[in-house]
Amino acid sequence: MKSQADTKGLKRRDFFRILGGGIIVFFSPWDAFDIMAMPAEQARTLPKDFNAFVHIAEDGTVTCYTGKIEMGQGIITSLPPMMADELNVPLEKVKLVMGDTALCPYDQGTWGSLTTRSFGPSMRAALAEARGVLMTLASERLNVPVEQLTAEDGVIYVTNYRSKKVTYGELTKGKRIERFLEVKPPVEDYTKFTYVGKLYKRTDSVPKVKGEVKYTGDLKVPGMLFARILRPPSHGATLKSVDTSAAEKIEGVRVVRGEGLIAVVSENKDKVDEAIVKINAEYTFNEMPVNDKTIFEWILKAETSASTSNVAGDIEEGRKKSESVFESEYHDVYLAHAPIETHTALAQFEGDKLTVWASTQTPFGLQDGLANELKIPRDNIRVIAPFVGGGFGGKSVFQQGIEAAKIARITGKPVMVVWTREEEFFYDAFHPAGVVKVNSGMDRYGRIIFWDYHVWMAGTRGAETIYDVPNRKTTSYSRGRNAPPVHPFATGPWRAPNNNTNTFARECQIDIMAAKAGIDPLEFRLKNLKDQKMIDCLKAVAEKFGYTPGKLPSGRGIGMACGIDAGTWQATMAEIKVDRTTGKITVVRLACAQDMGLCVNPQGALIQMEGCLTMGLGYALAEELLFDGGNIKTRGFDTYDIPRFSWVPKIDCVILDRKDKPPQGGGEPPIIAVGAAIANALFDATGVRLYRVPLTPARVLEALKQV
Amino acid sequence: MEKSIRFTLNGKKTTVAIDPGQTLLWVLRNHFGLTGTKFGCGNGFCGACTVLINDEAVRSCQVPFGDVEGKNVLTIEGLANNGNLHPLQQAFVDNDALQCGFCTPGMIMTALALIKKNPAPTRPQIIEAMDDNLCRCGAHIRIIKAIENASVMMKGGNEK
User: Fold this and answer.
1) In chain B, what is the greatest distance between 2 CA atoms, to the nearest angstrom?
2) pTM of the predicted model, to two decimals?
């Protein structure tokens, strides 16, 4: 704690110059907003200053700050053990502040199963440095070299004289720490973890079961108005004329126009619902000539640009050497995220300061969006994401936050926008439809000789083959630069974006080849894999499932599939029953084995696996957005069917013990193989191969008729 | 338009002057501040807004407020007793039977109506009773387990 006064007003670089890069600490009064005072060039990356991540109060309470949000995935429960272990403090002393742009370090968004594997290491590095600084402070305070100190439960002891000690709180006194450790200390070794790796039940469940948790729509501020916005009947419709006179006659309702919106506002939610349908509007239509049936042809005809990856050997050579050659085309459809909480936002201006509470996966992205759209300085905007009622990628877009802010500015009142279910099914950034063509071949022993994989509009995630193939190539076609749009509406990331499409195509193709080779599909996979992690996952799931070998189709209704997502390896097995009179598939059981590296919270990881497998039943069996041009026809849960209690099979999960490996993503991986595992089980049960999801009763029945 | 409506809300006799055509869901949320009852679809398809009216599970987004005249309305906020969780709430906590939690109040209220009618439901009966309550996170198997546990804990459904 050297000469606080002398160092004031100096830039961080100057400290090093003046003091030769030693450890300097000075305190300034704690102010939550201090941490936002970062140099402009750093403002939109994760900050380097660990004070942005952590505050240690005088009573020893450690508050950790993250721009990540809690939407059910459970990081509210799994981050604190990581933090407690890194800082050597008791778990119950760790508090978490999430998703507030004014308090938390910048974060790009809560998606991609990145919290544990990407934010985690940054947070741990920051806390490791904080721990190092605290040790140095303690060394000065106790006048004992750092090497003779031990940190335990927020107290630093002289190792051989434990009555000589100082607490973290006594060192920081709740003030901001200015740190400089020239050599960053390593993060804590996993063998020293006290909390990480133990089972933790959700820490937010008690307020959630009591209905006390506040989601965005549960907030209320004085003078708040509800708003409903006039929506076009389809994507591609343009407003021609509008008559709002009937809506204006409703008592307590005001019609507002401006900033590209026409909306009705009222303190009474029922009144805006009543008023919005009284607006008469006429439109002109300029829609894309495509529908849910022609979309695949449309995609293949689109102007695209191709990129190749994972190229090895020579495809033509491989084709020549192959005993049998397979050509298949697979289709995947548009899907809705359909969280039970619709997109919701509350916007409030106080002078020139704007606060927006929003159900969003990207509070900082919304902050940027508000700055751009409303042309107000970013520093005047605070975005807070309270508990989010499900996201799955869909709440990466934040149109509702912009809408609430615009109407708040027009009306001068705080404004709450709660999207209806129809709006949710209209403005969702849907999982894109895609086409995959796989050409592959094998020798007489069932070894894959070539793999020529082409994917349209479904991106590269999961596109590269996981199998050991000498001649291989992956080609991904996306919308060409300056080419006209391909999709008639917005598309975006949907839990394990596009890996579902790619894993479906790859793993169906593998079973088609295994069937032709007359080799059990598990054996066929093991024979063609060199990837030890995948081999381990397949063996683990087979054991859990009680798998016994059989040639396809065995009549048993058992299928499998495997893949890699978010740094995690996983293999899935399914057993199904098929009603041959209705075509209905009933999934009897699912098993999944996963290698996610170090598992921070096995309970949370297990719940995510179950959730992925359950959600995966939807795209496998039923979910499909129906549309004609820009008109979406499935705008409710009566027409867009998501998994229900009666669909859910027995589920068994295994998490492989990999404590010595860095933790990987847990929120998405097991969803990727559900479609292929069930399609492969359908073939095993009936000999019928469907090249697309969802495997609806009508499609299954139709295919059964043709056998 | 306003009318005086008398009903029992979470065990308390309540009188309120309000437009009887308003939706029960929004009156509960905005007039009474009982925001545990959620808006999920507004069409009665998802079950997030489920409350009990005279012990029947009802979709509050489909009920004009005037209909509760003289009736007993129970919301998720009326379940805990002196700060103690209701056995169903406790079973949801014990089984980690939720993720985002948005459907949870509706799940618990629907399960409560079931247990009140059928104190020892079988698994197929639970599935049938819950099938029109939607959960997107995939907590289903844990919710079923929680309801089974709660029905045992309640020993015949005598509580509440």
Assistant:
1) 47
2) 0.93
